[in-house]
Amino acid sequence: MGRYGLYKDLELILWSCLSSWYYGYHISELNFPEASITCTPPTASKLIGSNSSLFFGLPDCLGIDSQRYSAATAIFTVGGLVGSILSARAMNKVGVIGCIKLTGLLNVIGSGIMFAAPHWIGRLNDSRASCRVVAGLASGLAITTVPPLLSQISKTSINSIVLSHSGSIGILNQLAIVLGIFSAQVAGLIATGMKGEKFGGWRYVVMISGVVAVAQLVVGWIRVPNELMQRREVASQQIHEGMIQDEHHEAQYANRIPRTDQQDEESSPLLFEGSQHHIAAATALKHPDTLRALLSSPALRPHVLLVAFCLVIQQFSGINAVLFYSTPVLKGLMPDKSGLIGILVSLINVAMTVPSLLLIDRIGRKPLLLMSLSGMAVSATLLAIGLDRHFQVLSSITIVTFVASFALALGPVPFLLISELVPPQAVSAVSSLALSCSWTSNFVIALAFLPLRNALAYEDEQGKMQGEGRVFYVFLVIHVMALVVIQRRLYRD
Fold it and tell me: Which domain of life is it from (predicted)?
């Protein structure tokens, strides 16, 4: 029975993580094929507006300028914000399984619009922007739905292995995201070529996510009914009642805290452990599934705000700024293989998520977060020095260590905390709030980074920009502030 339960859990986990994979894939799907889409190589100018025999008369290139390309790409965050805001209402209406299926449906629509652009909507190049909004909606809904579902799976499992590895299961959400980013980069390289010389190949790239979404919908329709998690909750309660004599299982089911022998109280996943007055406060709330009720509760408000803080720090940590510098810095070491830089950075992100998967239930969330932020702080300092003094090797090494430190904990753990710092019935509301803050922070960083960098830098006598690394001292201050908050507030009464 236990082995059967393990197989069923793995099937459900992998199925739900496909939605997280979409999120990562959409983030990166247009990065590599930019030249193929915009026809920026000189030899491509004659192809703009021409028909391709590979795609049923659709043009190989859209021929849009870089400004409109950037705007249509950035509008993805707007769709993500809207999806996160609406996620709580969607989960309350169709359930968490229904939301996962909805992400698949939205991905099919978004991928289809993008693949057929501009055929479906006359000759409007802006049809690509509309598909990015739909992709953003799917991603915003996915990123607020998958982490709570993974937590729910681990808490309602009949298999002891799943019960005792809730942290590792939660990390699979981030692993799926970084695998999506990596696979999009690889698909772009294969379909469009190292320099984007394979015109029209970008349609293959955007088609992949639609094909995977169709497969997810088919499996979901056949194997995953919308009422599945309600049934698991009932089965879990029945098992708990039958194991009331077993102290270990009683702690796992009654307190909803999967633990290992190595964990101490502070590294325990749930703040509610040893804090019975928090449990009482959560139970006393008349409407614990509303954000207003949570923020009005003195016992729970700090933990709701802490979850939002962790998701905001994830964006303000400087990870996007480091990725921005990865191409110009690493290009000096790989001048003939600049197209592989994004793939290299994505591969590092994937590789360093694996240690988090193995360590999260062994050493705990808080120590891993402190290690991650400390590594990022040291890397930010050295990267600032390397950029200011033009130490290319030092800059290249610290870019790698910065990305690796981020992937160790600050990337995956904040998503995990959403389901562990608040009562189960409040997860959807808190998830919607926290991820909405995350999308907003992402948008702010995208707008403010370059102006801030330019404001802190200066021009030398030859008119060249100097002091570009100074902006990373700002991120260093954010890392130190986050270290203090995490050390003082996480898992404290």
Answer: Eukaryota
Phi, psi of 466 (to 5 degrees): -125, 160
Identify the CATH assignment for 263-493 out of 1.20.1250.20, 2.30.180.10, 3.40.50.300, 3.40.630.30: 1.20.1250.20
Tell me the C-alpha distance between 66 and 298, whole Å.
49
pLDDT digits (tens, 9 = 90+) for 175-205: 999 999 999 989 988 888 776 667 777 888 8
Percent of the chain at pLDDT > 90 equals 34
Burial class (CB in 10 A: 0-12, 13-18, 19+), 120: middle
Backbone dihedral region for residue 472 (phi beyond 0: left; psi -120 to 50: alpha; all else: beta): alpha
> What was the pLDDT predicted at 188?
87
CATH T-level fold of 1-258: Growth Hormone; Chain: A; (1.20.1250)
| Predicted pLDDT at 323 | 80
The pLDDT assigned to 196 comes to: 65
Average pLDDT, the chain: 79
Interaxial angle between packed helices 341-363 and 392-405, expressed in degrees from 0 to 180 and rounded to the nearest 10: 40
**Spatial distance between the Cα atoms of 113 and 107, rounded to a whole number of angstroms:** 10
The string of pLDDT tens digits covering residues 216-273 is 999 999 888 877 777 776 655 555 445 434 444 444 444 444 444 344 444 334 443 3
Is the pLDDT confidence value at 449 over 50? yes
Of 476, 450, 475, nearest to 465 by C-alpha is 450
All structural domains of the chain with their residue ranges: 1-258, 263-493
Domain 1-258 and domain 263-493, same fold? Reply is yes
pLDDT tens for each residue of 103-150: 999 999 988 888 877 644 444 445 556 778 898 999 999 999 999 899
